[in-house]
Amino acid sequence: MKRANGFSLIEVLLALAVGGIVLMAASALLVTISQAWANRPATRDAFDSHVNGIAHFLTAVLEEATKPEDNSKGTDVVELARPVGFSERDDPLIKFYLPEAPPFFFWPYGPANRVHAHLQFTEREGLFFLWYSELQEMEKDENGKLQLMEEDQLFRSLISPYFDEVFYCYYGDEEDGSDEDKNWQIVPGLEENVDNGKFRIPDFIKIVFKWEEEELERTITLAIKKPIPNGVEEEPRR
Predict the structure, then answer these.
(1) Average pLDDT of the segment spanning 145-165
(2) Which pLDDT score is estimated for 102?
(3) Which of 48, 76, 103, 184 is 20 to 30 A (C-alpha) from 31?
(4) Alpha-carbon distances, residue 223 vs 108, 203, 206, 227 (angstroms)
């Protein structure tokens, strides 16, 4: 008598059990690989590269900053100012002027020139440029300086979504003389002069970036003054 072709019930159950074990092992391996991919060093390297790139970019942009064409007095190229729409209760932002802005400053009508840019540090949002061009529709403020007519004309460009906090670095106190011993001060907010209510421009800013549990900080120098090319300071106009 010939045996019927096929598998017995025990053989089928054994095959299903072995297949289930293999499938579970494959699933566990996939989860392990996925976790390893999510936590791979390349991700942390990418975050580090991002922070380095932002630091180099900000340094390069600030090195191109110069005095606005309508500012004939002084050598300050970095100032503290409030963009249109900001109230006196808001702390001023670091502001600078670029005769020719890099392509990052997207301008729908062509290259962005004669740009006034502010650094805006916003918690849980990121690091931004608030900027406008003198080629936009302008009006004079109460001090006779040109400014945008409307707040919604101000451009807002994201620099980094990983901004966490900023510190302002000052060399000595404002009252210190040139021959006095000075120490570095690192504070979480702009220093304000109690007598005149004006804020003091920092020498450096220390920006902290955060991604998950990883934190990186970079220091950016603010070239507050630039030397006159011939080394002789111009006399103020009368």
Answers:
(1) 87
(2) 86
(3) 48
(4) 30, 8, 14, 10
